[in-house]
Automatic annotation (TrEMBL):
This is Arrestin-like N-terminal domain-containing protein. It comes from the Eukaryota. One of its GO terms (cellular component) is cytoplasm. Residues 10-150 form the Arrestin-like N-terminal domain. The lineage of its organism: Eukaryota, Metazoa, Ecdysozoa, Nematoda, Chromadorea. InterPro entries: Arrestin-like_C, Arrestin-like_N, Arrestin_domain-protein, Ig_E-set.
Amino acid sequence: MKIEHFDVLLSKQSEKPYTGGEAVQGHVKISVLEKVKVGRLIVKLVGQAQTGWKNKNSEVLYESNEQVLNEYIDLTRVLTDFCDENFNLEEGLHQICFHIPLPLDVISSIEKENYGWVRYTCSATLDVLDEDAKEIFAEHNFTVFSLLNLDAPYMRQPVTSQEENEVRGCCCNRKVGVESAQLTISDMGLLPGETAKITLVIEDSVKRKRRKSRKGRSDCVLLSLCQQLDFLSQNRYELHLFDRKSLTIAVESMVILFRKEYIYQIFPKTSTIQNNVN
């Protein structure tokens, strides 16, 4: 072959994501052993979203596929700098740089089995106009994060949730007290890498008999930062029918140990736990 090597390389390392509005930069690498007549050179950014599953109740198949990104740049004019007057690509190693901005509203990459995925690829295509005319193709996957804008004032306000549980005796079913918990997060909106201050207030008005076996016992609280994902898919045969599935993921979790006896001594009715979650 006259073209020994053809590849598209991104300036960022593969594990580092791109953000909406950021430019995808890189270069097309072409190693030529012998002069070869070439045509058009194009680099494309393509994003594809797919959802699909079988509904457990109806056994109906749902499947959707949508293109969420299609940006390209024509590098043919730049390619001519490496060609002779007959558009023959010269021998040697050639690197052709490109720069393609991502839209601000691009959606995040995701990969969840039995739910769906959003994938992004950067591809390069070169038309080779030799006797056996053909296209040479190369591509690489890359990851995208949506651009978050939390400028709205309410996004920087604390948010609180409270739950209450009525406790009854095991023998007479008589109410013996109430247990309640109030969770407050310092900011409603969080950006990746930011720290959230979490305050948990536990109130226990239940009257219990103290036992020696309970003395010195430690209790714990599990704090989890969760992400909810909603997937929508279309019926494969009846296009007016749709199905929805939700998935909740614990992004970050931590366990906090505390001694009830110690807390009761300082806060007879209410205990407050504060912690930070990244």
